[in-house]
Structure formats: structure tokens, C-alpha cells
Amino acid sequence: MPELRRDTIIGRWVIIAKERGKRPYDFVIEKDKTGGGFCPLCPGNEHTTPPEVLAYGRPNHSPNGPGWTLRVVPNKFPALVIEGDLDKRGEGIYDKMNGIGAHEVIIDTPMHDETIPMMSHGQLIQTFWAYRDRMVDLAQDSRFRYIIVFKNFGRAAGASLEHSHSQLIALPIVPHRIQEEIQSSLHYYEFKERCIFCDIIRQEKSQGIRIVCENNDFITICPFAPRSPFEMWLMPRRHQSSYITMDDNQFHSLTDLFLETMRRLDKALPRVPYNYMLHTAPPRSPFLEHYHWHIEIMPKLTMVAGFEWGTGFYINPTPPEESAQFLREINLD
Amino acid sequence: MPELRRDTIIGRWVIIAKERGKRPYDFVIEKDKTGGGFCPLCPGNEHTTPPEVLAYGRPNHSPNGPGWTLRVVPNKFPALVIEGDLDKRGEGIYDKMNGIGAHEVIIDTPMHDETIPMMSHGQLIQTFWAYRDRMVDLAQDSRFRYIIVFKNFGRAAGASLEHSHSQLIALPIVPHRIQEEIQSSLHYYEFKERCIFCDIIRQEKSQGIRIVCENNDFITICPFAPRSPFEMWLMPRRHQSSYITMDDNQFHSLTDLFLETMRRLDKALPRVPYNYMLHTAPPRSPFLEHYHWHIEIMPKLTMVAGFEWGTGFYINPTPPEESAQFLREINLD
User: Fold this and answer.
1) Domain B177-328 sits in which CATH superfamily?
2) How many Å apart are CA A255 and CA A119, to the nearest integer?
């Protein structure tokens, strides 16, 4: 079973995935796994993945066969496993617990080569529904304190399979990075009685210089202090703390703006590798006045090296005002 | 002038290096810069770097010519610049300041192809002296609140030049990552009246399973909760908060153990890309009972992808007990 370990100095958690247990020669022989040959995520190969936990578009057929338009399966090589108790324990001054969690793969499309900017509205909205449906289901498990949804696109951004997919990991603790965000926004709220994300949207609307695109319900900006060139945040314009409370109309609106955002990025930097992460309130959390869900999109254009590891600072050669202007002025016709 | 900007939600700082101002096509044409052709760090090419701020091994020759055994020059493309005032200011809810700092390159050796594990004791100790000498000099500038020394080796770890070099960046603020470490260790000290790093060393000595190598003055371990396979921390065995307070004997001892550590790593994973970072007390800080300087060595074997960006968690496929055993059992003869 994987193990969660806590850095005893700064409290950062890591997952030691013992089962993947790599010795030095494993790293040497691990070459490019993307492209070419067999794809376990393609229709017809459903038997090569663990049994699906969700599928859309195949109402009258039996599970784990073709005919689906979106499919969710447990990760074959999970970072965390779903069976067992947490069993928190110490080892001298160190803390650890069992690696209990869920690790699922959302197969965004049956078409092997279809990237997000190529997708139809009808295809992409299913991905956003699937995020909600899986979050709602996993939120019933009281062992899970947080559910993170993310996508790695391109090998340089960590994707080991080419076929478009997102991932979901349910965790037994609220991660440091999310807790920092929630606590800092609470602190701001206590001081100002306003949501800091709403204040950011207000300032961005009035300044205009970092807006990439927007519609009635959502806005995409390049944040004021981006970690990487062309980093973008997509946020609901009206206050909303949890992704899962979106209504049907918002799902359509989100799909529209996300597609536009990713098409602008793809036209600026064709097939650039990227990561995106959905930040939302913890499952089972009540409505939060101070927290505001959003999606952070990080193109992979710079490197995390000694300076970033050592300080937590990032060096970014492109001001967000320039990134935003470039993306905003792209002609999508 | 570069700009320091603060993320208004979680307080993370970024450096917007406007002068490097990259537009999308700059990223497309930026190919492999390492290897082959001209090297600005090689002897004979001294005129292609900014004038040196320190050189060893050339007592009777004029500066900026050959004959040196180690040379320190300002970075030709600095992330921060040394001239100017800090000028802290706001922009609505956002905070920023001028990108004042120093960014220097320590050319570890005159030999283009010499990597650390190939170096003699007499060559490598100069690098450690240079770190101290530059830190002591820059600490006199009261604008600098922190000085981070690091090395990127190999293109995958962010090195843009092949010739062995380290870097030093003096910053106008103590970075988040360092502050977290110092504050957490202070918290521990207030509670226990002991240094947490000393306690870690004590536990590692008694357990033995995560020790890579040690000598009279230093110890290298694989930490309990490592972010990457084969991550190592090299620490002084006796309490010491600042790197610059080392005595001559310690410099020799550090050089010995660091060489052994890097030779073990290189034999396990030949020419693996890596970063190392020197964590020490802020300049002008008094002796701290609760903080303990150390070097963190991170081989580049896994990727920072969506999960890591989104949560601050790391997934590590190799338990540190296995990494340490493998490194410990390597025969260096």
C-alpha cells in the first residue's frame, strides 16, 4: 500500500508509491511512452483498463465495451488506493498514514487524436459533467477530505498517454496548497468582508489589461503574479465556492469560455504542453463566503530549477499584461 | 527593470523579468542551448562575460584573463538587477516592488567537461569558499534580506550552459520557502527546546536506514518525506545555523562528504540531471538555536505536473530507505 509521509519541518506531504518501487535502472530505461502503438484509452481496448466507474453516451449497451462518448476508469497504476483504513501513525518524530484515496482517469473523448481545442461544445461539456459526477460520488466517502481534478497535456507536462484524459485524486487530507488558499482568503474576508477573488475580478474588469476573454458567467485572466508565461485563471464572475453547485446553464457557459480560452492558447502556442488544475472548496463543505472556485491553466514553458526549489519564487520572462494582450488579440475565425 | 510581484491570495512572489520579455514565438525557437560550439565560461573567453567579481588561482595576473581556477561573474541575463531602490508600491489590491538584487554565476572549474564527481578535493573546495566569500560580501548590502545559492546540472534540471557552474541570487525579501522552514523550526524549538534538524540527525543515526554516508562533521541522508527519488540532504552533524560560520576544517570535511555523496549519485545514475540548493540563515542573522543550515540535493527523475501544481503534494515512486540503501552500498573504489 502507498504511504503518505509528512515532512516534519514544513509539513509538506508526499506520497511514497512503494508498489511502483523504482530502483535506479528503472529510471534509465524509462523512455518516451507517448505516441505510436497501442492505446489503452481507445474504444475497443476497454478490457485493458480497470472496470469503468462512469460512462456517457452508451445507454443501451453493456459496460466496458465501445459506444461511449466519455469514460471514467480507476487508474491502473494508482498513486493512492481505495481499500483500507487510514491508520495514522508516527515513527519517532515523523508522521505517516496509509495511502488511502482514489485515483481515476477521465477519458475525455473516444477519439485518440482529439485535443481540447479541437473538441465540440457537446464533447467537452461531458468532461465538465464527469468532474462533477465523480466529485459528488466520492464526496460520500468520509475518508476523503479533498478531491483534486487536473489534466496533464503533452509529455513535457507529465502526460504518459497521448489520448486526451483528465485525472482525479481523492485525498485523505486537504493539501497544503489548497489550505493556504482557503485560509488566506478567509483572512482577507474577515478583514474586508469581501471575497478576495471577487475583488480580483472587480479590479481586472476595471483595469482591463489582464483579461483574455469573458462571457456572461465566466472570465479568463492572466493573473497579476503568474508562475509561468501565459498562465491563466478561469473564474466564475459571480461568487461561488464549489464547482459542484453549478447549474446546467453555467456548465454550458463554462464549456464555451474554456473552449475559447484553450483555442486562443493553442493558436498562440500550437500544441504547447500544459497542466490545468481545478481548485474548489472541499467536499461536504458548506457554501463559503470567502472562497471562490476556479481553474488554473499553466502552459509548460519554463522550468522548475534550483532557484524555484530553493525559494518557492518563480522567474517569469513574460509579463501577464503582454500574455493577455497577445491571447486577447488572436483571431479565432 | 525586473519587477517583484506578490500573489495577493497566498503571498507567493514571482519575478517578472520584463527585459527578457518573451512573446510566443520566442518559446518556439528556443531550442537546446547546451553542448557544442562556443562556451562563454571557458578560459580565453573571459571578455564575453561581465567583469568578474571574484577569482581564485590567479594572484599575479590581471583580472578577466585566463589562469584562474574559479571565477565569479554577474549573470549576463540577470533575474534581478543590483542598481536602484526597492520602491515598494501597490496597484489596487496588488503589491509589487522593483527587482533589486544580485545574480551571479560561480564558474566552478576552468575545465569545460569537468563535472562535480570528477573534481579533485582542491578544485571543489574553491566552490564552497566562493559561496562563503560572495555571501559575506553581499551581506553588507542592507537591501538584501536573503541569499540563495544553487546549482542546476543538466538541461532537464534547467541548466542552459554545459560548463559546470553554480548560481547565487540575493533577494530583497526572505522567500516563503525559507521563511516556512525557519518559522516551523522555531515553533518546534519553542515547544521542545531542541533544534528539529538535530533531532532528525539523532533519529537517523539511531535508525540507520536512511543514511547515505557520513564523516566526522557531516552526514548525508535521504529525507523521510522526499519530493523525488534519491533526494538527499547533507547537514552538519553539530548544530550550526549559518553556512558562513564554518571553519577551515569544516570546509575540508564538507568537500570530502559532498564529493562522496555526488560520486555515489553519479555511479547510481550516471550524469543524472540534478539541482542542489544551499539553505542557510539569512545574512546578518545572529546565531540561531533553532535553525540548521543544510544542502538539499534533488535529482531530476520525476515531473512537476498537474497534481503537484494543484496540491503541493509530491508523488515519489522510490522510498528513501531504498534510495539510501542503494547509494550506501555502491562501491566507490
Assistant:
1) HIT-like (3.30.428.10)
2) 10
